[in-house]
Amino acid sequence: MPHALIHGETVRELAPGRPFTDASGVQHPAEALTLWSDEDREAIGVFAFDELDPPEGQVIVSRGVAIEDGLPVRTLVLADAPAPTAPAEVAMHKVHKAALLTPWEGHANLKAAIEAAFDELPSPSNALALIEWQQAPNLLRDGATTAAVVAILGMTEAQRDDLLIFAASLP
User: What distance in Å separates the CA atoms of residue 115 and residue 117, rounded to the nearest whole number?
Assistant: First the structure.
């Protein structure tokens, strides 16, 4: 739990594991933050305060401490979390699962649409693509077979990336 030293209207966060000097100039050992009672720490102006986690979808840019009702409180500067990026490759069994669970217009699911797309490839590319789909250990985001299937299905890059992000999240 973090601690802060309050002196009048100023507040300073104390570094854990480091000695500190109180408002009257007395130096205290680092252990004062963990071994002293709340009452003993508060007598020299040191108060514990709660740490905060960022809300869903946001990341912490910086942290600070302020005084509210005479006690230290954590302040946060937040920013929107970056959108997840699609991995360069994903285990093929995960891609199969994700495609099976993804609806696709005109087919039972995206997996069925992908397998139907292989029939539209010229020979021997169709047979090679099917072998890759059935036996390759991983699907490459920017692989030739991936690009061909994406083009045949009319998928956007965003749809392809969403599939790979979903697949990577599966067990």
Answer: 5
What are the angstrom distances between the C-alpha of 146 and each of 89, 90, 124, 132? Answer: 11, 12, 16, 10
Beta bridge partners of 60: 78
Tell me, what amino acid is at 95?
V
CA distance 63 to 164: 34
Q: Is the pTM of this model over 0.85?
A: no
In total, the chain counts a number of residues equal to 171
Rg of the chain (C-alpha set): 28
Nearest-CA neighbor of 99 among 110, 89, 108, 90? 110
Query: Rounded to the nearest 5°, which phi and psi values hold at 128?
Result: -65, -40
pLDDT profile of the chain (171 residues), mean per 10: 94 96 94 95 96 94 95 96 92 97 96 93 92 94 91 94 96 94
What kind and span of H or E run contains 116? helix 110-118
Rounded-to-integer distance, Cα 119 and Cα 171, Å: 30
